[in-house]
Amino acid sequence: MESEKIKAFLDFVNESQSCYNLSLESMKNEEKRLQDFLHAIEFETNVKERSKICTKLHLSRKARRGYKDQVEIYEPIVRFFQDSQNKRTLDKLKQLLGEIRRVEKYHRDRTYIPRVKEN
Questions:
Q1: Helix, strand and coil in the chain, % to nearest 5
Q2: The pTM is what?
Q3: How far apart are CA 65 and CA 99, in angstroms?
Q4: How far apart are CA 106 and CA 42, in angstroms?
Q5: What's the DSSP call for residue 112?
Q6: Over its length of 119 residues, how does the chain's per-residue pLDDT go in tens digits?
Q7: How far apart are CA 68 and CA 63, in angstroms?
Q8: Nearest to 72, CA basis, from 30, 29, 24
Q9: Residue/partner pairs of 96-101 with CB below 8 Å, 24 or more apart
Q10: Comparing C-alpha atoms, which of 13, 2, 22 is closest to residue 98?
């Protein structure tokens, strides 16, 4: 059905926004964690413990890079649909989806009742 194609596109737009927000928040969290690790390294006197902290720092930076890459991928999509003209188009697509669903429901549920009975 045609409504499924429009719905898939609208789902893509919503999913892009969600992934962008989640990745941005995770990236910011990793940046805050960086400060925690740097302070832990600064004040740790035991070399082995400092090495463990450095390993955690390394993994945190790799995770942050992954989140940042996701932000960079989804950011143009999010910005595109934040533009007022494109947002209006998106709203019209949502209305169009509703109209097409109503027509598809009508086509699915319609029945024909014969006007003249044949003997």
A1: 85, 0, 15
A2: 0.78
A3: 43
A4: 70
A5: -
A6: 788 999 999 999 999 999 999 999 999 999 999 999 999 999 999 999 999 999 999 999 999 999 999 999 999 999 999 999 999 999 999 999 999 999 999 988 888 888 888 76
A7: 9
A8: 24
A9: 96/6, 97/3, 97/6, 97/7, 97/10, 100/2, 100/3, 100/6, 101/3
A10: 2
